[in-house]
Amino acid sequence: MQTSGRHIANGDFLSTPFVAVPYDLLTTHAHIGLHAHELVVLLQILANGQVRGTTELSPQDLGDLCGMSSKEVMGCVERLVLEGYLAIGEKFDEHGAHVTYFDLQPLWDRIRGKSSKKEVRQFRKDPLTLFEEEFGRPLSAMECDQLRTWLGENGYPEWLVIEALKESVLANKYSFRYIDRILFDWQRHNIQSRQDLDNYRQQYRDKAVRSEADSGRKSVGSRSKAAAPTKPKSADREQVRDERYANFYQLFPDG
User: Composition bias, kind Basic and acidic residues: at what positions (predicted)?
Assistant: First the structure.
């Protein structure tokens, strides 16, 4: 039997990966309360899991796949989580870093007629939203580029950038340059996981406590020396004289 010319013409397309989508999802999504744009988000998560083997998608990556901004797609994800269509799982990767991933099990439970609202989690906000909330203003184009550089070119994990933001807020330093110095210092000290960061912070606190204690002792010593009356030379000598020769010193006080 001769192969169809139409199949030959579409060979390049047909050789690309395909995604298996439950037919019940396509036929019942409106019935169970899913909007069309929410279905697109869920399908992109499903496709990424099947083709790439992971559902660890950043807000920006998921937004690009769905044709939305990261803020729009996170608003959509937040509703999906709150309404019990989606869950956010947590795990540690091979480097010990804390990562999150999308879990579609609540969606399958909803299609089966089960409710998944009882274990609802609030989805964490994306870095751009966190920065804008903490800075109290929209980020400039250059600041957005710097944030993308940290997460992309520099390869800093998202959680580490957020921790650096927390450090700057606690220090009342709302500066990207200050945050960049923090990240560079952590990289220089080979901070790879949350445990590494916790240990580094503890070492820094211990060092600061020791330094403050040393400064306090030096300050007390300086005040004591300044407050002590100046003794005559004869009194200095008297202080070091041996008591066994007290009578000798009385006879010859200038000896």
Answer: 208-217, 233-242
